[in-house]
Amino acid sequence: MLIVMVALWGGWTADSALAATRSLSLSAPASVSTGAGITIEVSADTTAGGGERIGFLHGEYSTDGGRTWTGFCYENNIGPSDTRRLDLKAGAAGSTVQVRARVAFRDGLAGDVDYRGAAIRWHETWGKWREPPAKSVTITVTAE
Length: 144
Prior knowledge:
The structure is a single chain. This protein is mainly beta. It has one domain (22-142): Immunoglobulins (Immunoglobulin-like), CATH 2.60.40.10. It has 2 helices and 11 strands. It has helices at 14-18, 122-126, and strands at residues 6-7, 12-13, 22-27, 31-33, 37-46, 53-62, 70-76, 81-89, 96-108, 111-113, 134-142. Strand 1 and strand 2 form a beta hairpin.
């Protein structure tokens, strides 16, 4: 049995909550030449309504195989959508740049959820940068 709730003051229905989309995208080239510029973009979005917003949008990169990470985006409570950009220079041929990003949507009817709409497991996937809520890419630096 499907129950549809209608709130006259806001027009919200259970059907509209099911149709919500949430996304996290991490855009970066797969490879670049030595010394070339690298542009990385992280975007997150929710159409859930009901007060849901991006509670956390974090992005980091590593140039040493993941031993250390440098943050380029640590946003909190920023609304239903946002995009952040990072520009870097590629290092030596054979090196890599690892990039990771994560998002938590908060304050909506679904509670704290990742980009798939699943509940955030704060001490498990979130704390360890696991997927989801995280996405990652590795950029390979090639000889010119």
